[in-house]
Design goal:
The chain is α+β, with helices and mostly antiparallel strands and 197 residues long. Helices cover 27% and strands 32% of the residues. Strands 1, 2, 3, 6 and 7 form a five-stranded antiparallel beta sheet that branches. Strands 5-4-8-9 form a four-stranded antiparallel beta sheet. It is elongated, with a radius of gyration of 30 Å.
Protein backbone atom coordinates (compact mmCIF):
# COMPACT_ATOMS: atom_id res chain seq x y z
CA UNK A 1 0.00 0.00 0.00
CA UNK A 2 2.81 2.38 0.87
CA UNK A 3 4.58 1.63 -2.46
CA UNK A 4 1.36 2.38 -4.40
CA UNK A 5 1.11 5.81 -2.72
CA UNK A 6 4.71 6.63 -3.57
CA UNK A 7 4.17 5.67 -7.23
CA UNK A 8 0.99 7.79 -7.36
CA UNK A 9 2.81 10.77 -5.84
CA UNK A 10 5.68 10.44 -8.31
CA UNK A 11 3.25 10.21 -11.25
CA UNK A 12 1.42 13.35 -10.04
CA UNK A 13 4.69 15.26 -9.71
CA UNK A 14 5.76 14.33 -13.22
CA UNK A 15 2.34 15.29 -14.62
CA UNK A 16 2.39 18.72 -12.89
CA UNK A 17 5.92 19.32 -14.17
CA UNK A 18 4.81 18.48 -17.71
CA UNK A 19 1.91 20.93 -17.45
CA UNK A 20 4.29 23.73 -16.59
CA UNK A 21 2.93 24.16 -13.08
CA UNK A 22 6.23 23.39 -11.40
CA UNK A 23 8.43 25.45 -13.66
CA UNK A 24 11.39 27.27 -12.20
CA UNK A 25 12.71 30.80 -12.76
CA UNK A 26 11.69 30.81 -16.46
CA UNK A 27 8.12 31.25 -15.24
CA UNK A 28 9.00 34.53 -13.42
CA UNK A 29 6.79 37.47 -14.32
CA UNK A 30 8.76 40.76 -14.08
CA UNK A 31 5.51 42.72 -13.95
CA UNK A 32 4.73 41.31 -10.49
CA UNK A 33 6.32 43.51 -7.85
CA UNK A 34 7.11 42.51 -4.29
CA UNK A 35 7.13 46.19 -3.28
CA UNK A 36 4.15 47.43 -1.23
CA UNK A 37 1.38 49.07 -3.23
CA UNK A 38 1.96 52.88 -3.27
CA UNK A 39 -1.80 53.44 -3.07
CA UNK A 40 -1.94 51.33 0.07
CA UNK A 41 0.88 53.40 1.61
CA UNK A 42 -0.98 56.61 0.79
CA UNK A 43 -4.21 55.28 2.28
CA UNK A 44 -2.40 54.26 5.48
CA UNK A 45 -0.76 57.68 5.83
CA UNK A 46 -4.06 59.45 5.19
CA UNK A 47 -5.76 57.36 7.91
CA UNK A 48 -2.96 58.15 10.39
CA UNK A 49 -3.17 61.84 9.48
CA UNK A 50 -6.93 61.85 10.07
CA UNK A 51 -6.48 60.20 13.46
CA UNK A 52 -3.91 62.83 14.49
CA UNK A 53 -6.20 65.62 13.25
CA UNK A 54 -9.02 64.27 15.42
CA UNK A 55 -6.71 64.07 18.44
CA UNK A 56 -5.62 67.68 17.99
CA UNK A 57 -9.26 68.78 17.65
CA UNK A 58 -10.26 66.87 20.79
CA UNK A 59 -7.39 68.31 22.84
CA UNK A 60 -8.00 71.87 21.63
CA UNK A 61 -11.66 71.66 22.72
CA UNK A 62 -10.74 70.66 26.28
CA UNK A 63 -10.61 73.40 28.92
CA UNK A 64 -7.08 74.59 29.71
CA UNK A 65 -7.44 73.44 33.32
CA UNK A 66 -7.86 69.85 32.11
CA UNK A 67 -5.10 70.04 29.49
CA UNK A 68 -2.64 71.27 32.12
CA UNK A 69 -3.50 68.60 34.67
CA UNK A 70 -0.45 66.35 35.20
CA UNK A 71 -0.88 62.72 34.24
CA UNK A 72 0.60 61.75 37.59
CA UNK A 73 2.46 63.40 40.43
CA UNK A 74 5.51 61.41 41.43
CA UNK A 75 6.36 62.07 45.09
CA UNK A 76 9.12 59.55 45.87
CA UNK A 77 11.14 56.62 44.63
CA UNK A 78 11.88 53.87 47.14
CA UNK A 79 14.03 50.76 47.10
CA UNK A 80 11.96 47.63 47.69
CA UNK A 81 12.48 45.44 50.74
CA UNK A 82 13.54 42.43 48.69
CA UNK A 83 16.51 44.19 47.09
CA UNK A 84 19.63 42.14 47.69
CA UNK A 85 22.23 39.67 46.49
CA UNK A 86 21.17 36.35 45.00
CA UNK A 87 22.77 33.09 43.95
CA UNK A 88 20.98 32.43 40.68
CA UNK A 89 22.92 29.32 39.64
CA UNK A 90 23.03 27.61 43.08
CA UNK A 91 26.81 27.46 43.27
CA UNK A 92 26.94 29.00 46.79
CA UNK A 93 28.25 32.26 45.38
CA UNK A 94 26.01 35.31 45.17
CA UNK A 95 26.70 36.84 41.80
CA UNK A 96 23.58 38.90 41.12
CA UNK A 97 22.30 42.13 42.63
CA UNK A 98 18.55 42.57 42.27
CA UNK A 99 17.24 46.04 43.00
CA UNK A 100 13.50 46.69 43.27
CA UNK A 101 12.60 50.31 42.50
CA UNK A 102 9.15 51.67 43.41
CA UNK A 103 8.00 55.01 41.96
CA UNK A 104 5.30 56.32 44.34
CA UNK A 105 2.69 58.98 43.53
CA UNK A 106 1.10 61.49 45.90
CA UNK A 107 -1.64 58.97 46.80
CA UNK A 108 0.99 56.50 48.01
CA UNK A 109 0.47 54.15 45.07
CA UNK A 110 3.28 52.52 43.11
CA UNK A 111 3.01 53.65 39.49
CA UNK A 112 4.81 52.79 36.27
CA UNK A 113 6.48 56.18 35.90
CA UNK A 114 8.97 56.32 33.07
CA UNK A 115 12.42 57.61 33.82
CA UNK A 116 16.13 57.15 33.60
CA UNK A 117 17.60 55.13 36.46
CA UNK A 118 21.11 54.94 37.83
CA UNK A 119 22.13 52.32 40.40
CA UNK A 120 25.33 52.49 42.41
CA UNK A 121 26.87 49.81 44.61
CA UNK A 122 29.15 51.02 47.42
CA UNK A 123 31.33 49.42 50.08
CA UNK A 124 31.67 52.25 52.57
CA UNK A 125 34.26 50.27 54.57
CA UNK A 126 36.77 51.17 51.85
CA UNK A 127 38.51 54.48 51.37
CA UNK A 128 36.88 57.22 49.27
CA UNK A 129 38.67 56.19 46.09
CA UNK A 130 37.70 52.51 46.30
CA UNK A 131 34.23 52.76 47.87
CA UNK A 132 32.25 52.87 44.60
CA UNK A 133 32.20 49.26 43.35
CA UNK A 134 29.87 49.59 40.39
CA UNK A 135 27.49 51.89 38.59
CA UNK A 136 24.73 50.97 36.10
CA UNK A 137 22.13 53.02 34.26
CA UNK A 138 19.04 52.28 32.20
CA UNK A 139 17.44 54.57 29.66
CA UNK A 140 13.62 54.97 29.74
CA UNK A 141 13.01 52.41 26.97
CA UNK A 142 15.18 49.84 28.79
CA UNK A 143 13.57 50.59 32.15
CA UNK A 144 10.08 50.11 30.75
CA UNK A 145 10.96 46.49 29.97
CA UNK A 146 11.88 45.85 33.62
CA UNK A 147 8.39 46.42 35.08
CA UNK A 148 7.57 43.51 37.38
CA UNK A 149 4.29 42.52 39.02
CA UNK A 150 4.09 39.48 41.28
CA UNK A 151 2.15 38.56 44.43
CA UNK A 152 0.85 42.09 44.87
CA UNK A 153 4.30 43.63 44.32
CA UNK A 154 4.57 46.32 41.68
CA UNK A 155 8.01 47.71 40.89
CA UNK A 156 10.87 47.82 38.48
CA UNK A 157 13.18 44.83 38.90
CA UNK A 158 16.77 45.60 37.95
CA UNK A 159 19.31 42.77 37.80
CA UNK A 160 23.08 43.29 37.61
CA UNK A 161 25.92 40.80 37.67
CA UNK A 162 28.24 41.82 40.54
CA UNK A 163 30.38 38.74 41.19
CA UNK A 164 33.61 40.58 40.34
CA UNK A 165 32.65 43.69 42.29
CA UNK A 166 31.90 41.89 45.56
CA UNK A 167 34.52 39.14 45.37
CA UNK A 168 36.51 38.93 48.61
CA UNK A 169 34.24 41.39 50.41
CA UNK A 170 31.92 40.75 53.32
CA UNK A 171 29.88 43.95 53.36
CA UNK A 172 27.64 45.50 54.40
CA UNK A 173 27.05 47.26 51.10
CA UNK A 174 25.09 50.37 50.22
CA UNK A 175 22.87 50.57 47.17
CA UNK A 176 21.95 54.03 45.89
CA UNK A 177 19.35 54.69 43.23
CA UNK A 178 18.70 57.89 41.27
CA UNK A 179 15.47 58.12 39.28
CA UNK A 180 15.02 60.99 36.79
CA UNK A 181 11.33 61.26 35.84
CA UNK A 182 11.28 62.12 32.13
CA UNK A 183 7.68 63.37 32.15
CA UNK A 184 8.21 66.23 34.60
CA UNK A 185 11.97 66.46 35.11
CA UNK A 186 11.98 65.60 38.80
CA UNK A 187 14.92 63.66 40.24
CA UNK A 188 14.55 61.29 43.20
CA UNK A 189 17.12 59.45 45.32
CA UNK A 190 16.99 56.56 47.75
CA UNK A 191 19.54 54.25 49.31
CA UNK A 192 19.62 51.14 51.48
CA UNK A 193 22.14 48.99 53.27
CA UNK A 194 22.25 45.41 51.94
CA UNK A 195 23.95 42.55 53.71
CA UNK A 196 25.76 39.74 51.93
CA UNK A 197 23.88 36.90 53.62
Amino acid sequence: MRMERMVALLAMTLWLGGCGMLEGPDNFDPEISLEPDPNQKIATLQAENEQLRQQVATLSEMPESIRNTPLYNLKAVKLGNYSGFYDKDDDDSKESLIVYVKPIDDDGDVIKAIGQVEVELWDLNDGPDEALLGQWSLEPAELKEQWYASFGQLNYRLVSKVANEIEGRSGPFTVKVTFADVAYGKVFHDQAVIELK
